[in-house]
């Protein structure tokens, strides 16, 4: 943040400016506070753009649509004046740094941050896809999704500047508004964008791929503009991205987003389904590294120390024609007449803002040292410290051994339960063909302490499990869990079983029971659950209709995508992917999810792979929906 200068207004609409947040091709962005004390970001459009009536028409439409976008994964539009001499829009201020600053190493102590770990990348991808669902759902296309437009907060990413970039198209062609002015950021534009073709929602998906690649490596996938804007744009249109350093577990997703053909990219809802629902809230583990969470807390506290500029307590009254001069002499027009009469203020419908109770005189903006600020500073500071402390504690809890007294004291889960467990499911003593897998971590009552996966002949269900109670009637503690389905393949197939019970079994096992089903769970070592090297690579078989069926197996953790399928025949091209369920013994893969469907292309049931004596790969489908298949290695 930078201080205000003589060129900056003191007020924009009803918002007192505090400092500059930045500037760009569209205008300046300010940190501001409402008269009720809410912190907001106000974007003031450039005067030369405001003079273009076509731009103003589009700006009106874009702001109206942006108001309807949900605020879970974006910065909500709170206010705007599209009729002012210099139009502006105010959004909720997001107390978090831009992804570009975190990955670029300019946020935190001495710029100690860089590329994000894989679990953070998955949460980032999920959040970006959810934001696009909201943005596209109201008919907007972002068109400028880049690291500086993605902010990182304690509970997830937030997308800003959605929809507004499209208004710039009104004053020029698809890619330029003025000679030499490019709409969008060259390193994060889609092929259709750099080629001047029609821009649709799939363009934003391409940008998601580019943003994820940058977040994973710290490098632009098609090179930096330092090598020349036109060179970067050529590579976007013609060359393949450099994804060698992107973690295996998310590389396939990034590759699919960066497909040259817009039709070949996954839709945002496919990305959300592919990653599965991401838990949030107090029981969820932090999605960012602990040291970064701590810096976010410090960043939020510093925000509270941003004082209102000197002389900013009173506001220059507007004149009768709706115009008002600020403290520097800069004049902004507003379409809304001033509603103050003497010391009274008309109260808007809905919840009154803080500091403006109904029937009372409105208070000045909250400033450093005021009683109002002193009241809520400790509350926010305590919340920030608690979040940061949680971020530090979680890795200790999940990584400590049974002798770690500190972690044991922080958990209601007995140490012998912590780990990964798997077993075959019985019903009335007879095998059901189902398999159950639990990953149990330390935690407290009411928290999510386990992730459960149930694999059946035709489905896969993933659930989060909260700890309901720990009982010890016979001296051996038993866990009671309440599960919630977070992913179902096929969609709608899975439902929760009610209460689950886990108790010690013989020989170091766990006994699981729920809804008349039982299983003896054996402990697994996740570090050894890797796919044998002889399975890795591409395998192929001819199809009965003269086409080819290719599968590629990659190394990735259990629960991540390891199998990619491509079927090509006279009907077209079909692609699908599937996740690893188990690498213990034979290779067990979950149900496939179709990415690109041609006529006759359908998902398949879970399958088991094993290598034969003649070095071919044999595949059997647990659901019996397809005949067994044999593949030969390619290359």
Your description of this structure?
Residues 15-288 form the Protein kinase domain. Residues 304-333 are annotated as: Disordered. With 635 residues, the chain is of the alpha+beta class. The protein folds into four domains: 1-93 and 315-363, Phosphorylase Kinase, domain 1 (2-Layer Sandwich); 98-288, Transferase(Phosphotransferase) domain 1 (Transferase(Phosphotransferase), domain 1), CATH 1.10.510; 415-524, Lipocalin; 533-633, Lipocalin (Beta Barrel). It contains twelve helices and 29 strands. The strands form six sheets. The chain has an eight-stranded antiparallel β-barrel. A hairpin with a 7-residue loop joins strand 28 (617-621) and strand 29 (629-633). The radius of gyration is 28 Å and the shape is globular.
Annotation keywords:
8-stranded antiparallel β-barrel, Transferase(Phosphotransferase), domain 1, Lipocalin, 29 strands, alpha+beta, single chain, 635 residues, 12 helices, globular, Phosphorylase Kinase, domain 1, 4 domains
